[in-house]
From TrEMBL:
The protein's name in its UniProt record: Nucleoside hydrolase
Keyword entries, A-Z: Glycosidase, Hydrolase
Example of a GO biological process term: purine nucleoside catabolic process
One cellular component (GO) term of this entry: cytosol
Organism encoding this protein: Saccharopolyspora rectivirgula
Length: 311
């Protein structure tokens, strides 16, 4: 039986790969995509999401969301993902339009229509999710599960303390972790285990069209960032999708996670306390990945996407 997923994202190279994994996974049914400003601005993340759904042949609605954080000035990652957000990828302009609904309304309405059935997976800044909780707190009850790619229980990747998705809107992240659901935190400690090594790239070479149109031009640019040169780029967001598809690939530890919003040097830090009393725990924190099985899942999903790419 497939699991329904609603994906909130900011495409983004690793978002692009995450969407391919979601579309190609036989375990998942993507019911919608919502966009948020993050890696690039909202115009680009929305256009990228539309272009990617056309590339992959995904017949799902794309709803445009928040263009800026709740309180702060926008923060982007063009130096990592390129001006377009997709590295060296060049795709035709989208022929589809985004949904008429705002992402926040789309999230609320989707979960309200199918309580307990849809997994909400957020792989960008958490602005849309915080706004959806503000509009309708019951989404915390209606989501089948809530999974994020974000945070870290050790070190950050933008500052020593903070990971990008959380740092981009710490106030939103704080509200999301404070909501009455159990957040599955797929943070940097986990995602940095998912590196596109030379051996992995060799496995990608079987996907002739997908590789030439997306994988190689996206990863060649992405991999030039100084954090990835030695061990290969990490496809962070695909890990959250892989969790939705097969939680057994991950080891999780229950913890209390709070988000620092005030610290001069620690703003955006996901302060993770594994020793807090159990009744205070609000998250499951991913620690270890079955790397070989993860890449088997990704390659299998990419193979299905390749076989069904529109002409």
């Amino acid at each position: 039986m497939t699991k329904k997923v609603l994906i909130d994202c900011d495409p983004g190279v690793d978002d692009a790969l995450a969407l391919a994994v979601a579309h190609g996974s036989p375990a998942l049914e993507v019911v919608g995509i919502t966009t948020v400003a993050g890696n690039v601005g909202i115009e680009r993340t929305t256009e990228n999401a539309l272009c990617l759904t056309e590339l992959y042949g995904m017949d799902v609605p794309v709803a445009r969301g928040a263009s800026r954080p709740l309180l702060r000035e926008p923060r982007a990652a063009r130096h990592v993902h390129g001006e377009s957000g997709l590295g060296n990828v060049v795709l035709p302009p989208a022929t589809r339009e985004p949904s008429g609904a705002h992402a926040v309304d789309f999230i609320v309405d989707s979960l309200a229509a199918a309580p307990g059935e849809i997994s909400l997976v957020a792989v960008g800044p958490l602005t849309n999710i915080a706004l959806a909780l503000r509009k309708e707190p019951r989404i915390a009850e209606w989501a089948r599960e809530f999974v994020i790619m974000g945070g870290s229980y050790t070190r950050g990747n933008v500052t020593p303390a903070a990971e990008f998705n959380v740092l981009a809107d710490p106030e939103a992240a704080a509200a999301v972790f404070a909501a009455p659901w159990q957040t599955v935190m797929i943070g940097l400690d986990l995602t940095l285990q998912a590196r596109v090594t030379g051996q992995v790239q060799e496995r990608f070479s079987e996907f002739t069209r997908l590789d030439s149109k997306l994988l190689t031009p996206a990863l060649d640019h992405y991999g030039r960032h100084h954090q990835y040169r030695e061990k290969g780029p990490a496809i962070h967001d695909a890990c959250a999708i892989a969790f939705a598809a097969d939680p057994g690939l991950f080891s999780l530890v229950s913890a209390r996670v709070d988000v620092e919003t005030q610290g001069r040097f620690t703003s955006g830090m996901t302060v993770t306390d594994f020793t807090a009393p159990g009744e205070e725990h609000n998250a499951l924190v991913a620690q270890h990945l079955d790397v070989d099985s993860f890449w088997d899942l990704v390659v299998d999903a990419f193979r299905r996407v390749e076989e069904n790419l529109p002409e």
